[in-house]
Every structure is written in C-alpha cells, then in structure tokens.
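My main concern about presentation is that the manuscript never shows what a single data entry looks like. Each protein is reduced to its one-letter sequence and a matching series of backbone shape codes. For the editor and my fellow referees, an illustration may be useful. For illustration, here is how one protein appears when written out as sequence plus structure tokens:
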Amino acid sequence: MKKISTEKKLTVITVVVILAFWYFITKFGAFSEIIIPSPKSVWESFIDVITTGYKGHSLLEHLGTSLRRLIIAYVLVVVTAVPLGLLSGYNSRIRAIWEPIIEFYRPLPPLAYYTILVLWMGIGESSKLALLYLAGFAPVYIACVSGVMRIHEDYIYGAGTLGANKAQIFFYVIFPATLTDIFTGLRTALGVEYTTLVAAEMVAATAGMGWLVLDASNYLRSDTVFMGVIIMGITGILLDKIIRIIEGKVVHWKGKNS
C-alpha cells in the first residue's frame, strides 16, 4: 500500500485549516455575508449555477468559453514565443530587434493597452485573444532568451568542433539545454494569462468565468463571486498540473544527478 508523503499530508492539513477558519468566521458573524459569504452560501450558489445557469449560460458554457479563449491564445504563444525567444538568445541581432518591444509593453498593466486593442480590433473575440496572447508572450520569450544565454559556451564550441553546423547546434544542443527554462516560462505564462482573463472578458462579453465573476460583483453577489473564483483557482491548478506532467515526460532528467 502506497504511503502518503509528508508534503501531501501538509497540503491537506493546510486546506482543511483554511476551510475551517472560513467556516468559523462566517458562523460567528465576524464579517457580513456581502464581504465574506459562508461556505454554505457558496455551495448553494454553485448548485444554483449548475442547475439553472447564470445569465442564460450554464456553468460549463462559462468555463468552456474562458478555456477556449485561454487555450487558443496559449497555443499561439507556444508556437511563436518559444522559437523567437530561442533565436533571440542565439542571435544578438534578432534579440536587438525584439527585446525593446518586449521590454516596453511587458511592465504595462493589461488594461492599459486593452483599450488600444479594442480600438484597433473591435470588441469581439480578436481583441480578447490578442490581450491574452500579449500577456503570455513576454514570460515565455524572456525565459527562452535567458535559457539560451545561460548555456556554457564550451558546449556550443565543442559541438562545432565535432562538425555540427548551426542548425544542428540549435536543435541538438541549445533546444534540449533550454527545455527546463521553456517549461518554466510556459507555466508562468499560463498564470499570467489566467489573471488577465477577467480583463479580457470585461468588454462586450456575455459569457466566461471572468465575466461571471465581474458581473456578479456588480450586483454584490459575493457568494457567486467566491464560487467563480474558487472554480477558476481549481481549474488553474489542474492546467498547471497538466503542464508539469508533460514537463516530467519531456524533461525526464530534471532533478536527477548526472
């Protein structure tokens, strides 16, 4: 019989303590239900949205809409930011072209340039996907550039000495050596995109978890807000877990002694 690790036990204990603390502070009326709803209220809100939906859409439709936006933008980030980041780390001229652009918009709050995206692309799905894409692009690009620049030059020179051309050095030396950094960037990008989701669904949206939370807050429905936030948090954990599983399969040597 497989034993439960100490780390997993501590995780379970932490969750139980948080839930117990939440239950007791609401049970004894330490805060108004509008500020912190009780676990029972949040659960009843969950059952209500599951059975009757919210503003004409079921919970699965809201979740599916958000995940569709998130995944489309995320896939675009993977197929563009990874190769461009690796090439920028490998070639200083390419890096000199792209780095000023990335460093300029990266610190900006998403809402700061979302208004510009809406002006350029309208209030439809295009501007929402563009916002999520830009939010996720920078972390992956920077992680890839950093990963390439941390590679010891002796590895590259050694491969060249053995007769490898630039393409072979890139695919057989640089790319494998940066996989850990790439996955770190991918995990960071997923988190950044997810936090930007509410901003992406603020304008002209009628469905999505971010929109659901925002709309419920306008009517002071804190039970629905908490329910939506909890579902988004659990979904984010599951998505991150998927990436970590893929990382474990691809970067199978990570954390192992040579």
